[in-house]
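name: query_chain
kind: protein
chains: 1
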Amino acid sequence: MTGDILDAFWTWSIIAVVPLLLLAMVGAHELGMRLHARLMRKAGDDAGLGSDEGFILSGVLGLLALLMGFSFSMALNRLEDRRDLMLQETSAIGYLAMLADGLSPEPARSLKADLAAYGAARLAAAQMPDGPERLAAEQKAADLREPIADKVRAALREGAAGPLEVALAGAYDTVEDTAVRRQALLQAHLPPRVLWLLAAYAIISAAMLGYALAGARARHRVASTTLYLLVSLAFGVILDLDRPRAGAIVVDQTPFARTVEAVEREAIAVEGPSAPPQPPAARP
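structure:
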């Protein structure tokens, strides 16, 4: 139960999270205003925003901006890492397909066919949302990598350990390494406790802002609500960046898809259409 609550930010829709955070911040603002009014009535002081309150408020909002900035930067860096790994895997698959041309026709055709099937499975898994179907697709892609490894090992055994064989081994190692790293990076995101702490700090900051601006009443209500809306939207963007499959901001798989299509065409070209039987030559 506790784990479900902690993971709520990764299971709830962003369309629901942003309005909920906005409402919580607006409610905290109003609560802060009422708390300020009650305390001032007890103290018999009707003063507005003092210098001490303004100093504390500046520090609170500055720290909130710093936390939001760090969280946004970390999420954006993970998005760039996912894009870089996608491009590295794309390059590795294309390079391995090119090296296959150095083999004899039958091993080259078989290796390219297996590489095309593997690439198509990887692309299908990358475009699926989170769930059991995605996990099954990822396992299928991992299983399709085994025939490629077997053919690379066969080329190493049959060859003389020349430059081609060394390059084949290195290219396959890059394909496997980038696939594993991409899979691990898809599971990486901000810890749920950090997100809860960030949301709680945003709500507490709204309460303190309402407390400090209680003397102004409705004069700053529109401006403060706009600020809370911007904070909520920024929080939603952070969540979206850290949702590589379910978010609106995702890595474009077009380069990977084009490489897979090229490898598929090359596999068909290597196999080639069966040649029609030639008539026997006429005897003189």
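note: DSSP finds ten helices and no strands in the chain.
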